[in-house]
């Protein structure tokens, strides 16, 4: 009798956990938030310092390809009012300090 009452109480108490709302998760955004205005100002032929002034420092500079800059943006647990970047994965390729190619994935 005691064992069945204990099992019944345990089952009811564990089932009651689903009645609570899910816990709040803080939106986590990482990377460079790039707007359409910034993308429209970005042009082939700009110097590295001009690109840095416009977009900020890149999120990733590859050690083996120093002329390739990656501007990444990720967002986890985003709320509807969380700002979103217009370029989630922007790759800029330089040659002799001058921007030669823009890849917006």
TrEMBL record:
This is Outer membrane protein assembly factor BamE. It comes from the Bacteria. It is a lipid-anchor. It holds the Pfam family BamE. InterPro entries: BamE, BamE-like, BamE_dom. Residues 1-18 form the signal peptide. Part of the outer membrane protein assembly complex, which is involved in assembly and insertion of beta-barrel proteins into the outer membrane. Keywords: Cell outer membrane, Lipoprotein, Membrane, Palmitate, Signal. Transmembrane segments: none annotated. The keyword Cell inner membrane does not apply. It is found in: Cell outer membrane. The keyword Transmembrane helix does not apply. Residues 31-100 form the Outer membrane protein assembly factor BamE domain. Part of the Bam complex. Belongs to the BamE family.
